[in-house]
Design brief:
- Helix content is about 50%, strand content about 15%.
- It has helices at about 5-15, 20-25, 70-80, 95-100, 125-130, 140-160, 180-185, 200-205, 220-230, 245-265, 270-290, 305-315, 320-330, 335-340, 345-360, 365-375, 380-390; strands at about 5, 25-30, 40, 60-65, 85-90, 120, 135, 165, 195, 210-215, 235-240.
- Helix 6 (about 140-160) links the parallel strand 7 and strand 8.
Length: about 400
């Protein structure tokens, strides 16, 4: 990990002979413009979390990203602005070399060029060696398999380095009904984890377009530490800290299923009124499952919940929305899957989400109908009629400003 040092301290170091710099310290300039940034990074231990100031960004020597898909690549580009080097793990060495040579993730994120300090590799140990932060963005259904093979070695590194671990994978594991951070927690017992969630299309993140996300940890100081690492100086990528890890993971999984529902609605010929209703009622489904699983609800109406749901349900950049639209147009899921290289996460999530909600006796009207379309071959039009024909009742929202007694 790295210590954030005020400029006045750094100026003393710089004034020393060059041989002192190179033999006693390793230091480097942050990879963003230095205007209004009063802190540099040195390869020394970080101060206690309680002593960190929320205006002091943290720059690191090296970052490790496990997961080479579109989202993993885009977050690597963010880290490239905050770290001297970034390693992205990809399971196939020949493909990793192809990406490095092209300076573009030609497999999963065509277009944006990779910064020169990002390297793709199939070497797990080389990826996390000297890392000041580790990100997991491996697809949820494959996360456990990766950790069974490599988790013990990574955990040994973590016990010595005490660096932040940020879980960015989304979904629900089919075999256990667990969320990604819960899976990672099995392999890193008693280790403090954080979760990243929020409206963040990979292509826009990689292109440096304005993006705000939430970083959640049960310990707010840890969430703030990760916030300072991941946020860029120009705030084009900005994190907000929260403690609702459960809410963030529930929202990140459910929004993909609800985005399929939104796409189906469009495919059936419905308009913006229907979409707005689906987003509003879908958000309450996120709220209800978050409450049942023990979340504190901070994330539901924030970036991870409302923000990401609005984005994913409203744009054809979303693979989940596109899949839903095709379903609404009468194309079967089998036919859709034949033409897609990257699987829409909501397709894999709908089935375990249905079982998880049933296990906790939570009614998810729209998510249940998506499950019935994908896994029970229910006609999309019939499914939407069923979702709309529910019993007339109160909206179910508590007043924000209760009347004074």
């Amino acid at each position: 990990m790295l210590l954030v040092v005020p400029l006045r301290v750094l100026s003393i170091i710089i004034s020393l002979p060059l041989s002192f710099h190179t033999h006693s310290f390793f230091f480097f300039l942050p990879f963003e413009p230095l205007a209004k940034v009063s802190f540099f990074a040195l390869s020394l231990p970080l101060p206690p979390l309680s002593q960190m100031k929320l205006d002091d960004l943290i720059y690191l020597e090296h970052a490790a990203v496990f997961g080479s898909g579109a989202f993993g690549t885009s977050l690597a580009t963010v880290l490239a602005r905050k770290c001297k080097t970034v390693s992205v793990w990809h399971m196939n060495e020949a493909e990793a070399k192809r990406i490095n040579d092209a300076r573009e993730n030609v497999l999963f994120l065509k277009g944006p060029k990779l910064p020169p300090n990002i390297t793709f590799t199939s070497d797990v140990a080389a990826t996390y060696k000297n890392a000041g932060i580790i990100l997991f963005i491996i697809p949820t259904q494959f996360l456990r398999g990766f950790l069974k093979q490599h988790g013990a070695a990574i955990f040994e590194f973590l016990k010595k380095a005490h660096v932040p671990v940020l879980v960015c994978s989304k979904g629900i594991e089919k075999s256990t009904l667990k969320f990604p951070a819960q899976i990672v927690g099995e392999f890193f017992p008693q280790y403090r984890l954080s979760v990243l969630a929020g409206p963040s299309f990979a292509i826009e993140v990689a292109e440096g377009k304005l993006t705000n996300v939430a970083v959640a940890s049960e310990n707010i100081a840890e969430a703030r530490r990760v916030m300072l690492i991941m946020s860029t100086k120009d705030r084009m990528f900005r994190c907000w800290a929260t403690t609702d890890t459960i809410g963030c993971e529930v929202a990140s999984a459910m929004k993909n299923v609800l985005a399929i529902a939104s796409g189906i609605s469009k495919g059936l010929g419905n308009g913006y009124n229907a979409r707005a209703a689906l987003i509003s009622r879908g958000l309450l489904e996120i709220r209800d499952l978050t409450r049942a699983l023990g979340g504190n609800g901070e994330a539901v109406f924030g970036l991870a919940g409302l923000g990401d749901l609005m984005l994913t349900c409203s744009s054809e950049l979303s693979r989940n929305f596109s899949v839903g639209q095709k379903l609404g147009q009468g194309i079967t899921i089998a036919e859709i899957m034949k033409t897609q290289k990257a699987v829409a996460e909501g397709v894999a999530t709908a089935e375990p989400l249905y079982r998880l909600a049933k296990q906790h006796n939570v009614k998810l009207r729209f998510c249940k109908e998506v499950y019935s379309i994908l896994y029970q071959n229910k006609n999309p039009r019939d499914a939407f009629r069923a979702a709309s024909k529910g019993k007339l009742t109160d909206e179910g929202l508590p007043p924000l400003f209760p009347a004074k007694l």
